[in-house]
Automatic annotation (TrEMBL):
<keyword id="KW-1133">Transmembrane helix</keyword>
<protein>
    <submittedName>
        <fullName>DnaJ/Hsp40 cysteine-rich domain superfamily protein</fullName>
    </submittedName>
</protein>
<dbReference type="GO" id="GO:0003756">
    <property type="term" value="F:protein disulfide isomerase activity"/>
</dbReference>
<keyword id="KW-0472">Membrane</keyword>
<dbReference type="InterPro" id="IPR035272">
    <property type="entry name" value="DUF5351"/>
</dbReference>
<feature type="transmembrane region" description="Helical">
    <location>
        <begin position="54"/>
        <end position="74"/>
    </location>
</feature>
<dbReference type="InterPro" id="IPR036410">
    <property type="entry name" value="HSP_DnaJ_Cys-rich_dom_sf"/>
</dbReference>
<dbReference type="Pfam" id="PF17302">
    <property type="entry name" value="DUF5351"/>
</dbReference>
<dbReference type="GO" id="GO:0010206">
    <property type="term" value="P:photosystem II repair"/>
</dbReference>
<keyword id="KW-0812">Transmembrane</keyword>
<dbReference type="GO" id="GO:0009507">
    <property type="term" value="C:chloroplast"/>
</dbReference>
């Protein structure tokens, strides 16, 4: 059966074997009496940390905290916004729910100039001659939707 290696043969940067004091040391006899004798087994030292290692650990911890904190912040903002009543009028239609047709400029008819100074007037095909369209921002409600309410999230699976 193989025996375990002795502590004096272990070579590792994490294992520390204290040196025994010789009689020729410059310590006074008083300090030798107050110190504990070195243990007969190896002591494990803590890992030496330099500034770069501490900075890397700090950056990692801060990154994890920010990665968790930002989504939590946005979730709380969304929840509190959902509780508040939305009464802000729609910007594009000024709260009316309808926008002026951009093809006929609200007249309901389109004038086309033909050759020889002839003009042809026809009904607008975009608004069917009404001169206005339902506001695409508020869908005719006249209330400005919140940012996430304006987006359509489609599940195309």
């Amino acid at each position: 059966m193989l025996a375990a290696p002795s502590a004096s043969r272990l070579n590792s940067p994490f294992v520390y074997c204290p040196l025994k004091h010789s009689s020729s040391s410059s310590f006074s006899t008083r300090t030798l009496k107050t110190q504990r004798p070195p243990p007969s087994y190896p002591c494990i030292r803590a890992v030496d940390l330099d500034q770069n290692t501490i900075a890397a650990i700090t950056v990692g911890v801060v990154s994890v905290a920010v990665g968790i904190g930002i989504p939590v912040f946005y979730e709380t903002q969304i929840d509190s916004a959902a509780k508040r009543e939305n009464t802000q009028p729609c910007f594009p239609c000024n709260g009316t729910g309808a926008q002026k047709c951009r093809f006929c400029m609200g007249t309901g008819s389109v004038t086309v100039e033909l050759g020889g100074n002839e003009k042809e007037v026809s009904g607008c095909i975009n608004c069917d001659g009404a001169g206005s369209l339902t506001c695409t921002t508020c869908q005719g409600s006249g209330i400005q939707p919140r940012y996430l309410d304006r987006r359509e999230f489609k599940d195309d699976d």
